[in-house]
Write a structure and sequence with these properties.
With 400 residues, the chain is of the alpha/beta class. The protein has 11 helices and 12 strands.
Length: 400
């Protein structure tokens, strides 16, 4: 679309290079203070078929910033080729062209260079069309009979694009840090489980064997001391203390790493833990196992079992419950563990609070396996904890 220009354009050269554009609070254009380092040249791709309009727009851009490079195209093929060859910093486009329109130009730009700001510079663009183009992804529009708005619009578009890229870079940096933290958490959990297993084995084997040997020696000594009621009573008390210590060692070793988890699998370990929980607390614990009995990958089983253990620990500490229902089932490709109590019911504040370290640990364990843990509490009716993890993680290597 051509403009009516009574006189031929004259491009005036300045001796000093223009400084980068900035927009003030009112949207007007101004020159920024000299930067510490020279910014990269501004590359503009101009979609325009009128040579006079091309010259005018180039003149305005170069007058504001001398290091601007403007490439002009007027066909969809040339536009697409140029975008693929080198992504520009800014796209300016007329809406009405002989071979295609602004809608097609915007579509090509969104497909090839979606992050590049796109400004329509047109003389035939109605308000409804402009609003529709903005909804489709255009950054701004400037009418050719109001070209004084071009430089503020360009400055604002570049500023917003720079800010968006900074935010995206910060978000990406935060995401990488979060991923690294999650990987570190998983590694620490793995190392802790390995250490618990080693300690459990040493406590059970070394201390258990030593105390068993001591008890045998004490039994031999009891057979040798036949006279005196007091020595016999002392030996009997010592033997009872040794037996109690052996039982304590077995309990500690089992709590560190239940042997049933490695020998009989997750379902058996959960049944055993539920039975221990009921015996220790007196809280009725009903079990439903709806999975095919199998031994899954060690780290997978460990993570699921620790989530169950932490759930029971929270019930003991906070729930004031008298009944717990546990269900372990396979639903499609997921393993689902549901623990429901009839206690006071967990609150939203307790779920999201800064002190909910145990709950966060449960979520993190499930997340390491690509799953999730949900907490739902109803005041006076109890709490339901649901763990869902993909069974694919049960056979994946390196699940930690």
């Amino acid at each position: 679309m051509k403009l009516a220009h009574p006189k031929k354009l004259a491009v005036r050269r300045t001796k000093a290079a223009a400084l980068p554009l900035t927009a003030n609070a009112h949207g007007s254009i101004s020159q920024a203070a000299p930067p510490a380092s020279t910014p990269a040249a501004l590359r503009v791709l101009l979609v325009e078929d009128s040579a006079m309009d091309v010259a005018l727009i180039k003149h305005m851009l170069l007058a504001a910033r001398r290091d601007t490079s403007v490439t002009n195209v007027d066909t969809p093929e040339a536009f697409e080729t140029e975008l693929k060859l080198r992504v520009p910093d800014l796209i300016l486009s007329d809406y009405t062209l002989p071979t295609f329109d602004g809608n097609r130009a915007l579509e090509i730009a969104r497909r090839i260079a979606p992050r590049v700001p796109f400004i329509f510079v047109s003389g035939t663009m109605g308000e409804e069309v402009a609003i529709d183009m903005l909804k489709q992804g255009a950054t701004d529009y400037v009418l050719k009979n109001r070209l004084t708005r071009l430089l503020p619009a360009v400055s604002r578009a570049l500023l917003e694009t720079g800010q968006r890229r900074e935010r995206e870079a910060a978000d990406e940096k935060l995401r990488r840090a979060h991923d690294q933290l999650r990987a570190l958490t998983g590694h620490l959990q793995f190392v802790r489980e390995e250490e618990r297993t080693r300690i459990a084995r040493e406590v059970h084997d070394e201390l258990g064997q030593a105390l068993t040997g001591l008890r045998l020696d004490l039994s031999w000594l009891a057979g040798k001391v036949r006279s005196g009621r007091e020595p016999q009573l002392k030996i009997k008390n010592m033997s009872a203390h040794i037996d109690a210590t052996i039982q304590a060692i077995r309990r500690i070793a089992t709590e560190l790493r239940p042997g049933v988890l490695d020998t009989l699998g997750l379902a058996a370990a959960i049944e055993w833990q539920a039975s221990e929980f009921q015996e220790r607390t007196g809280i009725c614990c009903e079990m439903k196992i709806e999975v095919t009995e199998k031994i899954w990958e060690r780290n997978f089983s460990t993570a699921c079992f620790r989530i169950f253990q932490e759930t029971l620990t929270n019930i003991i500490r906070h729930a004031h419950a008298t009944r717990v229902d546990v269900r372990l089932a396979q639903e499609g490709d997921e393993l689902v563990l549901t623990v429901q109590d009839n206690g006071r019911g967990i609150t939203e504040r307790e779920i999201t609070g800064a002190n909910a370290i145990g709950l966060m640990g449960m979520k993190e364990r499930a997340n390491q396996m690509g799953g999730s843990v949900q907490f739902v509490g109803q005041t006076g009716l109890g709490t339901t904890v649901t763990m869902r993890v993909p069974l694919a993680a049960a056979v994946a290597e390196g699940v930690r």
